[in-house]
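Example record

The entry below shows one chain as it appears in the dataset: sequence first, then structure tokens.
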Amino acid sequence: MFGVRVPDEVFDPYEEYGHLPTFISIRLHHGGIFSKGRSRKYLNGTVTYVDLIDSDLLSCHELVCITQKLGYPDEQKRFFHFVRPDSDLQFGLQALGNDIDIRVLLEYVPECKLFDVYTEHWETRLDTYLKSPMSSKVRIEQLPDEETPAPKKKSKRKLYLEWHEETPASEDVEHFGKDVEHAENVEVTENVENVEVTENVENVEVTEVTGKDEETLHMC
């Protein structure tokens, strides 16, 4: 809840908020731009007083709502800054861009009842948003690419391996009706009952179960 003060209306927040310790007023500077150089000024702006603001409910969204009520379009980007009561426009500007910034302002309540808030429209010429406490905690890091392991294929065959320690290297390979070449130091990689087996084998007998028939391969 807030109220826009009528021009020439007399309102003293220090007197009016005597029984409302969390209430504040804002002297809103809007419609102008900040000058460049050492002596900072807010040029071509308008001043509007906004009263009856409960600081416990103050947020960046409420500041946007105030400027919308003053006629600024919803799609317009706005940047808000307040002046610390113990400083000036040159050195005391701080951003009002997030909840942490709002809490910095609230540190001066209830001692201070009237705050100067400046508005920039569409873009900002200041670096106060970069100095915001929230900005200082944000770090952007590039994470190293993680290698994605290739999916393991599951074998649909069941293999039975039988070791033969004394199989002659020149022994012929018998296969039922098929030609099979001699293999030496063959690396076998298969999934046996969902278990991956990787071994260098020299003399191994591989028995493949294919339904009712059974084929035996002698590998040297």
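Notes for this example: Helices lie at 13-16, 60-69, 99-106, 133-136. The radius of gyration is 40 Å.
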